[in-house]
Amino acid sequence: MKQRQVQAFRAVMQYGSITAAARAIGVTQPAVSRLIADLEHSVSFALFERRGGKLLPTREAMELYGEVERMYYGMERLERVAAEIRQLRRADLRVATMPMVSFRILPAVLSGFVRAFEGVRVTHNVHTSPRVIDLVASRQYELGIAQVQGARQDIEILASFRTHCVCVMVPDHPLAGRSELGPGDLDGVPMVALTRESLASRHVDRAFSDVGAVPDVIIESQPSFAACALSAAGIGVAIVDPLTPISFGDALVRVPFTPVVPFDFHVLKPANQTLSRAGAMFRDRMIATIARMEDVVAI
Fold first, then answer.
1. Omega before 259 cis (within 30°)?
2. CA–CA gap between residue 170 and residue 192 (Å, rounded)
3. Left, alpha or beta for 176 (phi > 0: left; psi -120 to 50: alpha)?
4. Looking at residue 37, which CATH number applies to its domain?
5. What element of type H or E holds 106?
6. How much is the pLDDT for 126?
7. How many distinct structural domains can be found in the chain?
8. pLDDT tens for each residue of 203-230
9. Which residue has the higher pLDDT, 85 or 232?
């Protein structure tokens, strides 16, 4: 049984005659007749009989036709699915990010992405950087944004960016009007500090130690959003990335911290794994969006 024979059989069943079937599949009438004869020889039973000048299917032909239609339906469905995948109308995308990028960067990227590719189902989860890295490395997520400490063989960094930490405080804080603040200005000032596991906290501790200043840490907290919320409650000054405080609007004032404390973050994927078409499109949009943001530079 060959595909061309089955095609001819299906056409005869659909159009009711050799002539119409030949016209439908673009071959001659003798060619259709030969294909039907070859198929009958292959299956070892008659498919049609002539009565009064009409070509009538046998009961066996009707039974076979039902299976042929189910087969063609499956093929047509596969073709539709393939077209949807090709046109990015059918895909799954899983993205894990550190909290900082979840308030401005990801919403900006996702708003345009989901409008452009309505069939892509996106899952976005927010985790600490170490957890994001583990999720991407284990291929549970296709893309991630995180701070990376040291070399890793199980992830691939696609793009790297740098911003610099700022001091945040309530608008009526005595230091809110300063153009910049350093460790000496914050000596003994009540503060909300990021936990010591964070990269930024280590840089800040070193800056204070270098000048012999001692911050009055009221609370240690993580991530930056929690530290900002505590600062907005008037508990103390926090030193965080410059993007997170923007979400708090007028509740917080940002003042540059000196010496500069770098806050580096990276777009990453699993090592030795090619991005899906949806993943590649999302990566390009995400990198372009980050590159256009104020206070952020590519490194």
1. yes
2. 12
3. alpha
4. 1.10.10.10
5. helix 105-116
6. 94
7. 3
8. 899 999 999 999 899 999 988 999 999 9
9. 232
Q: Report the CATH number at residue 125.
A: 3.40.190.10
Sign of CA dihedral 208, 209, 213, 219: positive
- For the record, the structure tokens of 51 come out as 């009565």
pLDDT for res 222: 87
Instruction: Say if CB 137 and CB 152 are below 8 A apart.
Output: yes
- C-beta atoms surrounding 114 within 10 Å: 14
State the pLDDT confidence band at 51, using cuts at 50, 70 and 90: confident
How far is the CA of 37 from the CAs of 44, 137, 168, 178, in angstroms? 10, 58, 85, 93
Q: What is the pLDDT of residue 50?
A: 86
Residues of the domain holding 141: 91-162+264-298
| pTM for the structure as a whole | 0.72
Tokens of 292: 């256009």
Neighbours of 299 (CB within 10 A): 11
